[in-house]
User: Fold Homoserine dehydrogenase from Limisphaera ngatamarikiensis.
Amino acid sequence: MDVLNLGMVGGGTVGSGVFHALQQNGEVLARRIGVRIQVRKVAVKAVDEPRPYPIPHRFLTTDWRAVVEDPEVHLVTELVGGTTVARTIVLTALRLGKPVITANKALLSAHGPELFREAERHGTNLYYEASVCGGIPIIKALREGFVGNRIRALYGIVNGTCNYILTRMARDRADFPTVLAEAQRQGYAETPPDLDIDGHDAQHKTGILASLAHGTWIPASRINVEGIRSVTPLDLEFAAQLGYTIKLLGIVKQLNAPESDEDPTEVQVSVYPALIPSAHVLAGVQGVFNAVFVRGDVVGDTLFYGQGAGKDATASAVLSDLADAALDVRLGTRRRRPAFVEVPGRIRVVPMDEIVTRSFVRLSVVDRPGVLARIAAVFGQAKIGIASVIQPEGHTGEVVPLILMLHEAPDGAVRKALARIGRLPVVKAPPVRFRVESLS
Assistant:
């Protein structure tokens, strides 16, 4: 049986998980692929730092170059995170012609085109299954399983931290700061938590999925992103009364049907909290779990569900990539079809102002006659229809909530109308608005 040596850069939560998984299931992997993968060296920040799984000292070094540049190392994993040193590590390995396996979605988001070009230039491959949704094989599904499909729509719950917070807020009627603090105590949220709760982690992952779905690189700068800070228990309560659940979604949606190859395909690529029907399977995704709902023109609707993060789920995805990399080396497959093919002018990411959606709006208004008429007049002037109104009973005081469901309208028109409404003397707080996704 052929033997390939693995050099690992990063031995923390994910890295130690990969080391442990190889010790536990290395023989199973070898029997299945006909190649034995053995760890040669592991580069770490500090030899004696605590790890979820132990790594014997004989494998450890603090010099990543001693790992990547070792001529006896055939495969390299980059599991350190970040976009600076990690970029140098990956580029160094690729320029040596060594396949690289990474779990680093931020690195791919920031430098993906450069890294894939270097892999092509040096006749090797870059693998990244673990970069999106942990143990869910969504990259392989999009790249290989659905290779014969046009992806019409993709909706992803791709950040476990946000999903945990929204789940707890809905279930316990707890406010955002309370649940966030608990998530941090339990290790589900970082300190500071901005990358997760402001939607940027989901933005990185959604960009990768969008690029796979449409075959051309879509940078993070073209992705509209909004986080969950504005969601309150009141919003979740009223959404439930209307038959909806609020989830932070990564959305990749084809908006047109090009009549010829010369016409651009228009797509929406966004991250924002949205109301989705409570009866839909995505609404039942709870806690730290992730799910990706994919609609292909041939396959129809499919759902991928599972652990989105953590040492073991991510290690499973890394092992999958290690198996592919080992087989590619053994069989001499120096270069696969690139994942992302730059086709200028063929894909148009539609600006958010042009996206047409329904909306849920919560206003804090003075409780007196004529208020609704003034608000409706602004929407009427903007040609935005009101589908339903809820003014709940039981609220005391001068200011009460007013809930509106709006018909479909361009995002920019809704934004401008709400800005005007927010300036009305009878409106006592900035309007809160969430989009509604039917998922149909």
About this structure: The longest strand covers residues 265-277.
